[in-house]
Amino acid sequence: MTSPRISVSLPVYNGAETLRRLLASVAAQSFADFQVNMVDNASADGTAEICREFADRDRRFRYYRNHRNMGVNYSFERCFFLGADSEFTVYVGHDDYWAPEYLAACLAALEARPEAAAAYSRVNLLDMAGNVSLAGHKDDFDLSEPDPAKRYLTMISRVGMLTCYYGLMRTRNLADNIDLIHYGSAAGDNIIMTSLAIEGPIIQLDEALFYRTPPGQRYHQESLKERYERLESMSAGSPRSGAGRPRLGGASLPMTSFIALNCYLLTRHAEVFDYAAQEALTAKTLQILSQRYESMLKGELELILKCISTGNIYNLTASSEGEAGGPRQGRYKFLDHVRLAGYLLHLNNYRAFVSDKAQELHYARALVLLMMGRKSEAVEALAAELNFNPTHRGALELMARLK
Description:
The chain is an alpha/beta fold. Helices cover 45% and strands 16% of the residues.
């Protein structure tokens, strides 16, 4: 049996209020060769009944229910694998909906640009009552140009509402990146789209064929700031880390994770960026994102500094944990958290960073202090490093620049 050309992925939780409107808009698409994989994350409202209603009357709609709330990322990933045999994949939120030509228009754009990774339309923004509050909104940035470095810098500079995540994507590109949904507590979807933008252009159509509830109004569409505030509320002093011992990780360092992962994408795409390009783009990434999220980073840098200053380097590894009580994601063990700080600070030798050598802690401390603008204290830490190891190349080069 031939797979449908498009897989429509719908992770949903308690979406009964608007779900019927969405599914009716999908059923009415002028392009009909698709399959809808509806993954219900153990909803407690009428979501299941609505999904089963559509599945019973249209064989293109398939309903799956998690036995308990497994977290947002699990549902997104499950949706993907259910439709992984299709040539194209598109995600949709339960309180959004499409004009009848949405799939056809996005597909035509991708067929016209074989090198493109995704296509999406202008958006009509909805208010809480479901009425159009802003018609034909167009992102004021361009991800369609041929230079991958420029596309990458555009993504990290202009996050916006990430409407492109709800565009039509080539499944082969998404397959290369779906694991990234687990990589950042703050913004796995953003990291995925940044990676896709490196792989190929992302096209925005002139037509406004997508009706969207703005970010922050549904469980899987928080803004980056809202996600940060939620994750920041998770205690950095977990019982597992011992009384009074600070714990570093994706939950307690969401913004550090976000910046680190954008830097990581540059090395992940070594076939696109050579070492010199990675170095230059990493420097720009740190500059752009540390300025953009300066206030959010302040507390995280203090926590990193506390861990490094106290020599607490053996409490720095953990797996990503599913949200809402979901399971550990065993396939992904996050960069151990000193390495995470290393990416943020552009270290070249990550493994030495997790050794028990005191001099490496002095060097790491100096780098964090520089990120915090505390130059004189950084110089003192570098001097301590060089007292242990007078030939430490990184410390020598950094001390020379600071003098």
